[in-house]
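Milestone M4 deliverable, item 7.
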Amino acid sequence: MSVRGGLRVQQSENDSILSSYYGDEEVTAIITLKVETKDADAVCENVSLLKPAMDVFLVTGDTDIVVKAKFRNYTQLKRFLVEELSAVNVVKDTKTLMVVATFKERGEQRSAPE
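Output delivered:
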């Protein structure tokens, strides 16, 4: 088996684990993007047009853009990353953080997660 094939199997196993963990529950994700500085404003505008994107921030530091997005389930998140976000050609790198529990959102305190 090639390394490439091994990575495909590992990714499939990871998808199965995440799908079983999140099931059909709503998924909130924080997605960071690295882009060329000259393209940053245009990327922010394009990403902000994508329906799942709730918030889009141009930031300083190790990343250029931070996107907060909500999805009906993990499958929708995966589809967004693979089909929609990857279509933005000037994105050099992304990292996706899936929210496990929300304690405060939009200035409102949430009850302790169970």
